[in-house]
Amino acid sequence: MKRGEVYRFHYLWGHEAARGEESGRKIRRVCLMMEVNGWLYLFPISGQAPQPREPGEERLYETIPETERHRVGLGAEAEKVSHLILDDYNKVKLDELYDFESVTPVGSFSPRFLEKVAQRFINAMRDRRPIAGLTRR
Predict the structure, then answer these.
(1) Rounded Cα–Cα distance for residues 120 and 38 (Å)
(2) Per-residue DSSP letters for 94-109?
(3) SS3 state at 69
(4) Which pairing describes strands 88-93 and 132-135: parallel, antiparallel, or unpaired?
(5) CA 13 to CA 101: how far, in whole Å?
(6) pLDDT digits (tens, 9 = 90+) for 64-94
């Protein structure tokens, strides 16, 4: 498993976990953004722009360009918009991959796109933006 690869995964949103849910409602594409000490950090891809959790809150995400959508099998429709959500992630142990539909990637993002996304995430962390990280067991 490599940085930038996209997988199909039972993603559990932070707001779902806060309500006591323990498993993702549906399989969705996630991007493996980093692996640190045996933990994989997975960021979800959504066809809907993320909504504020609280009034006035600005969510952190990156709109995925058409060429990148092709790379990860998201379709070619010009009007289709997909978003890589950066303020909600799941963290899973490398040896506990139960929530993956498959460990074969459906595609991968380009290094250039990943660098842009990583810089945006680093800036958000520096600015202490709220990030809903969830450790899956």
Answers:
(1) 24
(2) TT--TTBS-SS-SEE-
(3) helix
(4) parallel
(5) 17
(6) 998 899 889 887 665 678 899 998 889 999 8
Q: pLDDT (tens digit, 9 = 90+) per residue, 20-72?
A: 877 778 899 999 988 889 899 999 999 888 887 778 778 888 999 988 998 89
Token duo for residue 45: 């891809």
Question: Which tokens in the block code for residue 91?
Answer: 């963290």
Q: How far apart are the C-alpha atoms of 14 and 88, rounded to whole Å? A: 6
> What is the spatial distance between Cα 137 and Cα 124, in angstroms, rounded to a whole number?
26
Distance from C-alpha of 92 to C-alpha of 100, rounded to nearest angstrom:
10
Residues 6+ apart with CB under 8 A from 18: none
Q: Which residues pair with 5 in a beta bridge?
A: 108
- Return the closest-CA partner of residue 6 out of 60, 62, 67, 74: 74
Structure tokens at 100: 């993956």
User: Which contacts qualify for 49-56: CB closer than 8 Å, 24 or more apart?
Assistant: 49/81, 49/83, 50/83, 50/85, 50/87, 50/88, 53/15, 53/130
Q: How far apart are CA 131 and CA 87, in angstroms?
A: 4
